[in-house]
Structure formats: structure tokens, C-alpha cells
User: Fold these one by one.
Assistant:
Number 1:
Amino acid sequence: MKTVVAPGVPDLKAGSSHYFLRSVMGAARPRKDREAVVEPSDTPAESEADARPLTKRQRSGTEVENAPPAKHQRRDGEAGFSGRIQRPGVPPPTNTAAFVVPDRPSPPHRADDKDGHYVFELGENLTSRYKVLSKMGEGTFGRVLECWDRKNKDYVAIKIVRNVQKYRDAAMIELEVLHTLEANDPGGSRHCVSLREWFDYRGHVCMVFEKLGLSLYDFLRKNSYRPFHVDMVRAFGRQLLEAVAYLHSLGLIHTDLKPENILLCTFDYEKRTPPPGSRLGRRVPASSGIKVIDFGSATFDDQYHSTVVSTRHYRAPEVILGTGWSFPCDIWSIGCIMVELVTGDAVFQTHENLEHLAMMEQVLGAIPESIGKAANRSAAKYFTHRHRLNWPEGAQHRRSVKAVQKLSQLQSLLAEFGDASVKPHLDSLVDLLKQMLRYDPRDRIKAEEALRHPFFQAGPSDSS
């Protein structure tokens, strides 16, 4: 399938297509221990960001990278970017000044805060069309507000990007990706979030999205990190793979797949009493429908690739080792996500490269010599001269060794922490995950192939 790009997304400055933005559209993440920080992956010294987390599930994302200028620049009036195909007849993205209601003016102009965030008050207007109801989240990129759309009589989530040039540049690239997805899936059947429109308001790029439910991470958290039933895991995994297969068919790599970036389609849930001995939570989503969000880091395979991508817990070994990444890094992330949905918690909870690799070996077996031999110069220090992982000799702390020792092999991990509903499907699930979590990205299963795996062909489980 050829890549199709929706035309008309303007450049903000030369080279802007080489910025990548980490966003949290639609996810409520006020906790300080989950904010984005830059991870200096090539520095041997342990940084504050990579220290052993003091609270459960501390995470680290990626910042916007100041990348080299583009080799191919788009001039005003040109549609699309060099190397991709423009779909004929696709209208340009909507850049609206918003539906005008004379008696509902915008608030008086006020200065942004010191970091360039838009300053707002609940109940006031964001243009005359949207009324601000609540703050849904905040991150490096800016803020997400829940708003009432007076024109369509509906709730929406509006991502308001900081009034800082590099974030504006990154937002325009995210818009290009979103309109590419929409142009190729006008019916919205590929499980990707729908962008309704965008506009520029007082120096802030504002993206209007459909309002969705909780992220899978937030649902797990509200369920006390209890695992999902195997049927729910199967439904989530199938939709996630369908979304990623669609992205990959367009030449796009998401690069930041994680439970925070997978949203339920509705907030509705049911309360059930789990059977005795079950590890299931009391809350069960009313629907298994999900959508993938956060395309601020999505990268076309023929464009510049930043050195570090993905949030730490879901980062593929080829990213850590600097051997070059592409579509398979998304598959690795999905494998990690599915383990988390089955067990209730992230499997690789670390902020150190060597410890991360040691955890992989503890769960998945030894890293092949060929992989260690291919590591770039900065990652070669994690291996001995025989290209074996330098562990535990290279560990910086005893607590790091203990953290690795606590982990079990994959099958034991799923059997111990998964719900009883997993047991009849354990062998099939483990086989699928092992194909997703292969060290060599060339050997990793593709999204389309994974969808044909026996795990996804099984019917509903009899376990409750």
C-alpha cells in the first residue's frame, strides 16, 4: 500500500519536519513521577532521571529533539513532503477561526506562563466556539483541556501546544501525520484517534480531538493494577496490532506505544465481584474498543530517525544498542504492553540501560553474541570482549542486581501474575510474545503476521 499524505499542512520554518514531540493527548497524568525527561542513554554515569524509581511505575519519555535541518524542504504552497505520494482530491486540513457566536467572546488577552503554556480559567471560552470544562492532562508539549463544542453540541479534548517555536514545529508535523491517517481511513475504522480540526489561537497550535475514555494505564491504576481477563487482553491486542499494521502500511512508525497512549473508547465500566482466588479487578470496561493516540513522535521510515525513541519501559533493544530502528520497535512495545495487561504491571521497570538489558535476559534468555557484537561504540561497554552482557559484574548498585533477580522467565511470569483465565491460553500467548520480543528486529514477527497467530483465533474463554 502506498503512503498517502494529506496536503496543505503549512511549514512553520525550514527543517521543521525533523522535530518529534512527545504528547499525552487525552491521558490524565498529573503525577510528577511520570513526567517526560531526557534520558542520556549514552552516558555511563547514572543520572537523576535514571535512578531507581521511588514510586511505582516511574516512567521517562523523550523530549523534543533539536535535529539536523531537513535535506528536502517544503516551500509555501507545495503539498506534501519529498518521498511520499499525495492523494488526489484530498481537501487541505481545516484551519478554522472557530464558529463565531457574538455574545460569547473569547477572554481578554493574557500573557502565557513562563514556560509558554496557555493560561486559562475553567468556564471561560477558547474562541467563541469552545467552553473550557476541565484540564485533562499536562506534559512537555502543553496542556489538554476538556471542552464543550457549541457548534456540534459535543465534548472534545483540545490539545493546546506551548507557544514555543520547537513545539509549534513539532505540532505541525503531528498534524501532517494525523491528516495522513485520516486521508487513508476516512471511516475511522483503524483504531486511531480522530482529529476534528485545528486552529492557531494566540500563538498556540490547538488540536481538537474526539473525547475518549481512560487510558489502559489509568484503568489499571484505578483497578489497583489488577490484570485484565485474557479475553480483554486478546481484544486489546488485536485492535492494537490492526492499528499498527495500518500505520506500517503507510510507512509510519509510532515509536511511543504504551498503555498511556491507548485509550478506551468510552468511560463506562461495570463492577463485578471476581471469583475466589481470582486476580481480576472489580472494574471491567463496558466495551473493549480502544484507539491509539499521541502521534507526536510518529516517524516516516524514510525520514530522519532520532537516536532515542520510546518510553523506557517499552524501548526495544536495538534502540538501546544504537543498531538502528524501524517498524519492529513498535512490535517490541506491543509485546511489553501485552505482558503488562496480563500481569497488571510493566515488566521492565528500570531507568538504566545495562539493567534494562539484564532484565531482558532474565525474562527472555541470553542476548545472542551477534546482537552484542553489533552494538554501537557507546553501547559496547555493556558487553564483555566476548560480546556477552557484562552482568552482574557491570552493575552499578546491589539493588540493581536484586531488581533483576526478582524477575522470572516469561512463561513463569505470566503464570504467576496473570489471572486464572490466562491458563488455558498460556502456551499460545507465550509463543506469540516470544515472537514479538525477539532480540533481532529482523526476526521479530510483523503486525499482519501476529494477527494470524492462534492466540487471536481462539474463542472466548470459559474462565470468568
Number 2:
Amino acid sequence: MTGCKQLIIGIDPGTTTAYAILSIDGRVISVKSSKQLKLDTIVREAHQNGIPLIVGTDRRKCPGMVSKFAAKTGAAKAVPDYDISETEKNLMTKGIETENAHQKDALASALVAYKRYEPLLKRVDKILAKEGKSDLSEKVKRTVIIKKISIKKAVNMIEKSLPLVSPY
């Protein structure tokens, strides 16, 4: 996992499908849209930028394409408690350039996912920094989110699976 960035993906499926790729700290990496965009294309594009950790939607009822993306990539799904309104999407994406409403929706979907997990991601970094284990951050974040276990359990799991380095 070293060298590969964890990613947050937002998908807006439809006749014109759009997707947004964010870094684990919420920075926009890419926003694209196209008519008849296939799931495999989104998966490939995501993997060219890193490893999908979370995939989000702006709809309370998770679209099939988002569920299929999660299944194909092993990413956790972030689904809001309610459909995100256009007003909220406009506020969330203000100052970030998008070419069309589909891209804005995909970006909002990714930002919803980021906001949902941001407190946990920051807590992982804070705890690991305090313990002098910041180098485990990426693995711990992935383990905590995907396996839905505590930070402490994730650290223990990861440390037990690390190969021992011989002093000779």
C-alpha cells in the first residue's frame, strides 16, 4: 500500500455519468463526465490515481453503479441520510470548477463521503501520531473503514502482520 494513495470517489450515474476523485484529505484530484461512461472505465481511472477507499453518492437510496463500484474495488459506501439538495451541492462545491451539473453532483457525492469519514480519518492520524506510528496511517485507515473495527484493533492486526526485520 506504500506509494499508493487512498482515494474517495463520488459517482453520479445516468445517461451522462460523472465521477470525482478526491485524495484522502479531501483535495480534488479529478472530475470527469461522459455520455455512456462505463463502470470499468471509472474503476480503471480510479486505480490509475490510487486505491479507492470510499465511494459516495448524493442519494439516500444508493444507485446500483455505486454499489457495483464498491463491490469491484472493495471500497466502503458512504450514503447520506437524505437526498442532498441542489442548494447544498452548490454550497459544497462553491469555488471548485466543474463543467456541468453531473460533475457537480459527483463532486458533491465525493465531498459527502469525505465529510462522513473525516472525523474518523483525523482521529486515526491523531492517535497514531501520539503513539509514534504515523507510518501505519494508510493501512490503519483502510482497515478501520473496510473491516469496521477499532483503531486499536487495526493497529494490532497490522503490527502482527508486519514481517519482522532481522537485526543481522
Number 3:
Amino acid sequence: MPLHTNIFKQPGEYGVVTELYAYISFLMIIYTYGMETSFFHFSEKEKADKNKVFSTGMITLLATTLLFSGLIIFSSETIAGWLDYKKHPEYITWMALIIGFDTLTALPFARLRQQSKARRFAVLKLVNIMVNIGFNMFFYIILPVWNKADGGTLHSIAKAIYNPSIGVGYVFISNLLASAITLLLMIPEMRFSRSDFDKQLLGKIILYSFPLLIAGLAGMINETLDRIMVKFLSPEPGSAMKQLGIYGACYKLSILMTLFIQAFRYAAEPFFFSQFKKEDARKVYAMVMKYFVITCAIIFLAIMMYLDIIKYFIGKTYWSGLKVVPVLLIANMCLGIFFNLSMWYKLTGQTRYGAYFAVFGAFITIAANMILIPKMGYMGAAWATLICYASMMIASYVTGQKNYPVPYETKRILIYVLFAIGLFFVSKGIASMLEPTAVLQLIINTILLGTYMFVLSRYERPPVELK
């Protein structure tokens, strides 16, 4: 992102990236249709043969991935026209391939999580990220330099493989190459046996995963629709892509919170299933929730207290959107709490509730975006995201406590969150009233963050080791 927002001086160019990745996220739900959670459910809770579960899921995903990607590639020109990218149907083809490759690694990654092979999992994920970054730097920094050289081998290489007119397209090419390389590296984890394919088991998996698919689709509406609707509902239609680019770039500044929540989900799902039948499982879930929220609150404060430094990760032309960052951080915190709360319906096999919550959130998302974006632009999209996730969080908490009560320390958790938000407003108030120098403001913010950490150290003990 720092590279893209500095390369693409016009936010409208980054708007293309923001929009198409929103569609990629949505399509990933359709491609995987809840198969990862189904794998954990049938491998752990139902005690089915792990090899049969994996092989059945892998063969099914392979078949549907070939079908879905084939249809998208075949219809790429039509789809490009619908999205106002008539001149770039290749974007749609690249999207289909990226999604296809990532789908084929989804279940192998889930298997690594189920086998507690955290190191292998982390290495492969890191390789994917680093290869993606490497190719972005190659296409946007190295090749342009070689292309301007006065002859020589490097200039010849650049001439052969570099086309400046591709522009934004190199973002997708880099991702495609990274996904392809990750797929190749995961071949050892993808081994399955056709003889282990079980039609009866597949039927059970489909029944279990269908509500998860509905929940996933509705959930992705909640996660991505704001970035899609900014383009169509912006109060300034002539600059809609510019607004989308600014919003998308500033959205990424909440990446630390997003990464933590994603890492938590990867680790928590198999852990929660493994704890389910233990006597003290509910106490463990409550403790995990408390420390999860504390970590989210610390991340929120750290980002906001040092936003004047962090903002340099995006180009200056995008800074006008920084006001969305605190709203989106709190929204993502609510989403993380919702994920934590909602394990109850997966643990008890009542996955239909996942669909209920997600559809409920989707209605709120659509309504809030339609009301707020025309009035407030991308700031309205940020508030719509917070309203949606907070509503889903509350709904899951109330329903979960009726169906699978967990002794959460709700009052203490709420105090910690409000205290963090309060310190943020103290920082804003000091900056507004005293107008200190940048260095002095950073010192003040560091003291405020230190105050929060000190309070935590006085009232919280380190969690016991969980096995």
C-alpha cells in the first residue's frame, strides 16, 4: 500500500485497486463456501476420518473452482463492461485466476492449522506476502529504472517484459504470481486420495456449510459493500473514484487491527473446537475474549497516538481521509468481538445463526450506506461499517448468552474499551486547545498510551498457559 499510494498520485487509480479487491473478497466466499470451518467441524467435533474429510473437501473445491473461474474468464469482457472497465477485460481474467489459486490453498492451510503446524503455516503466508511485495517493487520501481537506462542488458529485459500502459494492472499481476507460487509450494499439503472421496460425507458437509456460505456472503457484504457503494453513491459523482481511492488507502491504515483479528481467527477456531468438551471450556472462552479485547484496545490507541507518523505510509494526496481511521478501528474491534462471540453457534452446530446475524448485518449495511454515503461521502461509509458491526456484536452477545452462556467479564471489558476511546479524545482535545508542536504531541500521546498500559498492569494478571 505505501508503494501504491505513492506511485498512483491520482487517488482514482488506487480506487480501481480498492474496488476490484472488494469483489475478490466477495467471490472468495462463494469459491470456498464454508469448507474450512466444515473441515474443522467434521475432523474435530464429529471425529470423522481426517483424510476422508480433507480429500472429499479438496476434490469438491477443485471441481467447483475450475467451474467458477472458467465461467468468469469466458465472460470477462461482459463483466468488465458491467464494471466500467471495458478497456481492461484482462483485470477480470487475472481476478479469476487469483481467486482460483487462493481457493485451492484454503483447505491445505486449514489442515496446517488443524495439525498445529504454526511454523509451516506462518512461513507460507509470509512467503506469499513477500513475493507479492517483491513483484510490486519489481514492476513499479526496478523495471521503470531499467526501462530508462541507455541500452544494455537491463534495458533489453525491461523492454521485453515491461509495459508502462499496464499501470494499475501490475498490482493484480503481482498478486497472481504470488498466489501461483504459494500454490506450488503447498503441493505437499494438497495430497489427497480419490478413493477417500465420500459422497455421503459430502452431503453432510454441504448441509453444514450452506448456512456458513449464506453467512459468509452476507458478512462480505458487510465487509466490502462500503467500498463498492462509494463509487455509485458518492455526493460528488465526478470524483467518485478519487473518493474511493482515498477511502481505500485510509482503510488500510487499520491493517494492524485487521491482521491481529485475522491471526486470532486462524488460531482461535481450531483451539475453541479442541477445548469444547473440556470442563472449564466456557471459562477459557471468557478469558480469551477479555485479553482479545485488551489487545484490540491497545492496537487502537497505538495507531491513533502515532497516526501523525503512520500516515506517511500513504501518499500525501490521501491524507484528507485520515478522519475515517478511528471509526474504522473501532468498527473492526467490534467485528473481532463478534467473531469471538459467534464461536458458540459453530461449537454447538447451530450454524444457521451465522446466517441470521450476517443477513441482519447486511440489511443494516445496505440501509446505512444508502442513507449516509450520499450525505457524508466516504465518512458515511465508515460510520455505516461501525453501525453494522456494533449491531451484529450486540445481537450475537444477546443470542449467545441465551443458547450457550459464557461468563464474560462484560463490565470490565467495556470499561477498558471506553477508557481507550476516552484517552484518544483527551489527545484530540489537547491537540485542539494547546496546538503543541508535533514532537510535544507525540510525547503527550506516549504518556497517554503509557497510562493505559500502567492501568492494565495494575488490574490484570498475565493469562495462564492454555493447553
